[in-house]
Amino acid sequence: MASTASEVSQQVQSNNNRPIFKSVKALTESPELTSLPPSYTYTTNSDDEIVADPDEDDPIPIIDYSLLVTGTPDQRAMTIHDLGKACEEWGFFMLINHFVSKTIMEKMVDEVFAFFNLREEEKQEYAGKDVMDPVRYGTSSNVSMDKVLFWRDFLKIVVHPEFHSPDKPPGFRETSAEYCRRTWKVGKELLKGISESLGLEANYIEDTMNLDSGWQMIAANMYPPCPQPELAMGIPPHSDHGLLNLLLQNGVSGLQVLHNGKWINVGSTSNCQLVFVSDHLEVVSNGKYKSVLHRAVVSNKATRMSLAVVIAPSLDTVVEPAKEFLDNQRNPAAYVGMKHRDYMQLQKSNRLNGKSVLDRVKI
Ligand SMILES: O=C(O)CCC(=O)C(=O)O
Ligand SMILES: [Fe+2]
């Protein structure tokens, strides 16, 4: 007899102090699954929600990285101007000609799939409990806090200042080391351009955020096909912590960013990196650049994979608005300073819910 949806739904048990959970991937492989288990039913205010494709008159900004790093002084100045505009108006842009080769991006996607295709027991060795665990395999977002489960499995790995990797699959470590090195460089160059776009010295963010010992994390997200995608959510609306997030996806769409009150379908992209302004950049710029709300919806057709690279200050950096912008009367600080480490702890004690963590440091 087929089990009920709730029988095959999420379970969190304790085994040798390690949480053992049912991943979405394992759930989709069980023959009993014909409908969405109730614990995954997500309700949106779909009546007042607008979802749209990008508008020709207001397209998603595209930034040409090669012009930033190898362009003429005029091209670089123009790109910095465009970068500032993209950060201010969208908090999001597509990065082209970024010198992270197609080969390494494809290899990275393959290694991430190879990890998720390991046997469940092998993956569960990395089932972490704490946001500070350097290698953490999990499901949903924060299972102990989530009221509704999200249709997503994830693998999060801290890769800088100390590099970590799961031991399996065999090629993961090497490919990820290379991918992380290259994306870190891209992130740092973008932050130089962004500093300049704010009227600061090129090295301002790099120096004040102590990026030499900066914190880089990769988050691989896996969204298997969902029996009732309209009732589920892959990852709910949120902004990211850190300065920037560079995202790669496997050619399956699902990402939406909030722009002027509408959820814009980003669509499938190949060869480009999607760049998000994250919470700490909003703080440093004293709110001039806003971290972008985004979410991932799911489909019943294909497995979607995305890989986020978070570029963040060192854990001991107190992130606060750049003093250069502040003027007590006309432009007072809009955020209190907080150590990156404490910000992460705050995030851990919250559900993934819009910009609720950032709101805690807003004055
Ligand atoms: O899968 C996506 O497109 C979004 C992932 C994401 O927002 C994240 O990892 O923070
Ligand atoms: Fe995100």
Automatic annotation (TrEMBL):
SUPFAM superfamilies: Clavaminate synthase-like (SSF51197)
Keyword entries, A-Z: Iron, Metal-binding, Oxidoreductase, Vitamin C
GO molecular function list: 2-oxoglutarate-dependent dioxygenase activity; L-ascorbic acid binding; metal ion binding
rRNA processing found in the keyword field: no
Entry-linked Gene3D superfamilies: B-lactam Antibiotic, Isopenicillin N Synthase, Chain
Domain Fe2OG dioxygenase: 214-313
Family affiliation: Belongs to the iron/ascorbate-dependent oxidoreductase family.
Name used for this protein in its record: Fe2OG dioxygenase domain-containing protein
Organism: Glycine max
Lineage, uppermost ranks: Eukaryota, Viridiplantae, Streptophyta, Embryophyta, Tracheophyta
Protein encoded by which gene: LOC100818482
